[in-house]
Amino acid sequence: xxxxxxxxxxxxxxxxxxxxxxxxxxxxxxxxxxxxxxxxxxxxxxxxxxxxxxxxxxxxxxxxxxxxxxxxxxxxxxxxxxxxxxxxxxxxxxxxxxxxxxxxxxxxxxxxxxxxxxxxxxxxxxxxxxxxxxxxxxxxxxxxxxxxxxxxxxxxxxxxxxxxxxxxxxxxxxxxxxxxxxxxxxxxxxxxxxxxxxxxxxxxxxxxxxxxxxxxxxxxxxxxxxxxxxxxxxxxxxxxxxxxxxxxxxxxxxxxxxxxxxxxxxxxxxxxxxxxxxxxxxxxxxxxxxxxxxxxxxxxxxxxxxxxxxxxxxxxxxxxxxxxxxxxxxxxxxxxxxxxxxxxxxxxxxxxxxxxxxxxxxxxxxxx
Length: 368
Ligand SMILES: *Cc1c(COP(=O)(O)O)cnc(C)c1O
Fold this sequence. Notes:
Blueprint: H1 15-25, H2 33-46, E1 50-54, H3 57-67, E2 75-79, H4 85-92, E3 96-100, E4 122-128, H5 137-147, E5 150-154, E6 162-163, E7 166-167, E8 174-178, E9 191-195, H6 198-208, H7 232-242, H8 245-263, E10 269-270, E11 286-290, H9 293-305, E12 311-312, H10 321-325, H11 335-343, E13 344-347, H12 355-367
Parallel strand pairs: 2-3, 2-4, 4-5, 5-8
Antiparallel strand pairs: 1-9, 6-7, 8-9, 10-11, 11-13, 12-13
Helix pairs in contact: 1-7, 2-7, 3-4, 3-6, 8-12
This protein binds pyridoxal-5'-phosphate.
C-alpha cells in the first residue's frame, strides 16, 4: 500500500548545486559563506536589519529569552496552545510562563485575555502564530507599548505570511523562525533570529557561539551561551529554498484550499479559518477539530489504516506532565485549548503532496 506521510519536503531548485559547492570548497562548518548569504537574504525578505542563523527554531527561542535578559522572578505571557519550545526556553531561564487560552476559531492566542494576565513581574509576551494564520498583532503591540514589555514572536510556521500586509517575523523585538523539513522552507534542521537593533543582534550572535567574547581573550567567558551554530551546508539549502519561497507558499495555499473545497460542509469536523480581516491562511498544516474525542480517534485510526498519515495537535502547556511536576499551572484551565488539543489532528500537507494524493484523502474522508 502507498503511504502518504504528513510531510514530504520539496528540494527542486539549487539545493544540490549549492551543497556540492560546500563539499568541493571544503566549507562545511558555520564559518562558510552561505551563512551570511542566507542571513542577509532572509532578513531582507522579512524586512529586518539582521538575521542570526542557528541550529534550530527551539534554540532560537532559548537565545531570544536570554538575549533579552529574561530570568528569575520574571513572568512571560504566552499561549496555552503551542509547541513546548517557547515555554521550555522560559522555564529553563528561571522565569515563569503565564498562559492565555486560544480563540476557538483561529486556534491562536486570544489576545483579549492578555491584559488581565499582566502583573508587575511581566517582562515579555511571546506570541506563537499557529498553523498558518497569524495572531491578531495590533492589540499585542499596543499592550507591549503600554506596559513596556518585550515582544518575542515565534514565526516558525509563518514564512512569508503577512499581518495586515506586514511580514510576520517583523513584529518582535526578536522574532524567530525554524527551518525544520515541514516548514515552508527548510534547511533540514535550522532556525533564525530576526532583530533590528545591532547591539541585540551582536548579543544573539555571541550566545549562539558559546558566548565567546567578541574581541576578548578566546576561551574566557563572562556568561553561559550555547553552541547553536548553523552549518554552511544547512545555509546552502536555505539559500536554495529561499529562491523558491513564493512558489512554496502558493503551493501550500493551494493544498489548503483544495482541502477546504473538498471537505466543505463535512459533518462532525471544524475546518481551519481560510481568512480573517488581517490575513489569508498559508496552511503550514491543514488541521481539523472533531466534535468528540471518539470521532477524532476513529477517524485518525481509519485514515492511518488506509495509508494516510496524520499528527495530533499540540498538547496544552498547562497539561504537560513535565511542567506539572515542577509545580507549574496547578488547577489552571484553558477550555478552548484543551478542546482542540484533544480533538484536533492534521492531514498530509507537505510540499511534495500531489493532487492525486489530495483527491484520495478527500475521497476517503467522505467514505468514512
Ligand atoms: C517547528 C516549531 C518550533 C521548533 O522548531 P525546531 O526547529 O524544530 O526546533 C518552534 N515553534 C513553532 C511554533 C514551531 O512550529
